[in-house]
Structure formats: structure tokens, C-alpha cells
Model the fold of this input.
Amino acid sequence: MQNADSNMAKKNNKTSTSLDVESVQKQTQSEVLPHDEISLRAHAIFEREGRQQGNDVDHWNRAQEELRSDRLRNEDIERPSKID
Done:
């Protein structure tokens, strides 16, 4: 019985992971960021943090997050406020 439970847990984990990947893909498709913008921002983070090697993936991910955040902030600024 323990083996069956273990296999079920693995199957459920695999399904969960698949759903996570699908949601990330949908989010990524709707928020396409130019490679050059991400690269420049990642390099700026690298410089800002003292040019330490080995954090390139973290810098890349943070650059994407910062750029998305900047875009959302800009959308809020550009959106006209309702006047009642």
C-alpha cells in the first residue's frame, strides 16, 4: 500500500509541476520582454552588486521581475483616473 501511495504522490507532484509550467508559459506569453532589455537590466544588477560572478541566473530573473514591475507601474500612471 505504501508503494501505491508513493506512486500517487509522485503522479500528483508531476501534475502540479505541469500546471505550474503552463501558468508560467501563459504569463510569459502575455508579458514578452525583449532580450536586450533583460540583458541590460541584469548587467546593471551585476554591476550594482559588486560584479560578483556566479549569480547570473538570479540577476536575469530579478531583471525580468524589475522590468515587469516597471511596466505595471507605468501602466498605472498612464491609465486615466475616473472622475465621478
Q: What stands out?
A: The chain has a mean pLDDT of 77. Helices lie at 2-30, 35-48, 56-78.
